[in-house]
Amino acid sequence: MDFWNLLYRSVVIVNDTILLTNIMRYNVINADPSKPVQDRDHKFLTKAVEEAYKGVECGDGGPFGAVVVCKDEIVVSCHNLVLKNTDPTAHAEVTAIREACKKLNQIELSDCEIYASCEPCPMCFGAIHLSRIKRLVYGAKAEAAIAIGFDDFIADALRGTGFYQKAHLEIKRADGNGAIIAEQVFEKTKAKFHMY
């Protein structure tokens, strides 16, 4: 099955505009003047979409897949495991990063790329950033997932802006000694801990 059929099957169409937007987004944003890069991106993104189907078919989670690639080889290919693991953070991208770090025995993935079937949510984008992955290629826009009930407007929820109201969560920075001793942890441990 070719990529366009996979993309079409992976997105519940609300109207023809969403599909057209997704196809055009892949062609315009992720296209590269060199054909080998397009073919390569197509191959790995297709694998991410296949993972999205796999996750839904086996009941593990939502229709999201991710593939971590290093030197043109797939390190890991994963899908959303939120339902299987009863873990709201087990998104495809986070799961792929966790597994890639374990497999490569390192926490920094600067020589890797990640392919995601859908535009990453803020949590997944944060994980991609923290792992120092050098390149992200995604297929569907976040709006395609939102159209079928997934809501990832985390920033809007925290600020109380946009469609969503303020999150049902009190967010407060500690004051007094609590804040001071929490900040001292960084100063007192900086010589003992080196992340990268």
From TrEMBL:
Q: What residues form the membrane-spanning segments?
A: none
Gene3D superfamilies (alphabetical) = Cytidine Deaminase, domain 2 (3.40.140.10)
Among Pfam families, the record links this protein to: dCMP_cyt_deam_1
CMP/dCMP-type deaminase domain span? 39-153
| Keyword Nucleotide-binding recorded | no
Q: Which GO terms describe its molecular function?
A: guanosine deaminase activity; zinc ion binding
InterPro entries attached to this UniProt entry: APOBEC/CMP_deaminase_Zn-bd (IPR016192), CMP_dCMP_dom (IPR002125), Cytidine_deaminase-like (IPR016193)
GO:BP terms for this protein?
purine nucleoside catabolic process
Return the similarity comment: Belongs to the cytidine and deoxycytidylate deaminase family.
The name under which this protein is listed is: CMP/dCMP-type deaminase domain-containing protein
- What organism is recorded for this protein? Rhododendron griersonianum
